[in-house]
Amino acid sequence: MAEPIRVLLVDDHQVVRRGLRTFLEVQDDIEVVGEASDGSEGVARAEELRPDVVLMDVKMPGTDGVEALRTLRERDNPARVLIVTSFTEQRTVVPALRAGAAGYVYKDVDPEALAGAIRSVHAGHVLLQPEVAGALLSDDQSPSAGRGPALTEREREVLGLIADGRSNREIARSLVLSEKTVKTHVSNILMKLDLADRTQAALWAVRHGATGRRGDGATGRRGDGMTP
d(Cα 25, Cα 27) in Å, to the nearest integer? Predict the structure, then answer.
């Protein structure tokens, strides 16, 4: 049996954390390894526990979710961060995505959909709703604004599949490569385009029309209302 996905809950409302823990603890493949009540504590716990996925609120007293995200990225913490928020405004969600979040869900999300989102970001997917992706792409200050240096043909193929929401495993299967080789291509893409993470890479690809092809056996975009 595969190791469970280790999840850290970061939210200033204890009742929210309790509700999330109660549901997630009945999932066979998800383990809640800790909780934090604000962004500062969340960073400390993430450094201590090294979870696979962090469920992060945005608006919290003291250090908020966006600042906590930036700190985790500065420290090269490998945890994938999924924003869980009650705010629907793009001006609340977009900064978190720019700071490195792998996606977001609302606090009233169906429990099974939340578990699916955790599994998706853990697998390397980027979860963005279409209207938020549009807001990110329309901002001239986006990291994707410049075209950057030329990519190799293989790097363009990998980038296109990232934009389609593929994980490294799915990209490897689609292009008949090893996962290690795909990881190297992803690292080279981020370095060449001066991007911080897969979210920014997906947005760069969409802006410049570098989307991948579907129908080759990989999972691609899921029917959950979200898109890379």
Answer: 5
Please name every residue paired with 54 in a beta bridge, in sequence order, or none if there are none: 8, 81
- Main-chain dihedrals φ then ψ at residue 97, nearest 5 degrees: -70, -40
Task: Say how far apart CA 74 and CA 121 lie, in whole Å.
Answer: 20
State pTM to two decimals.
0.67
Chain centroid, CA 60 distance in Å: 20
Number of other residues whose CB lies within 10 A of the CB of residue 213 = 12
Coil/strand/helix, residue 7: strand
Measured CA to CA, the distance from residue 97 to residue 18 in angstroms comes to 25
Q: Which residues contact 209 (CB under 8 A, 6 or more apart)?
A: none
Find which of 37-41, 197-201, 224-228 is predicted with most confidence, using mean pLDDT: 37-41
Separation between Cα atoms, residue 30 and residue 167, nearest integer Å: 19
Phi and psi at residue 204, to the nearest 5°: -60, -45
- Kindly tell me if the per-residue pLDDT of 19 is higher than 50: yes
**Are the CB atoms for 28 and 4 separated by under 8 Å?**
yes
CA–CA gap between residue 69 and residue 63 (Å, rounded):
10
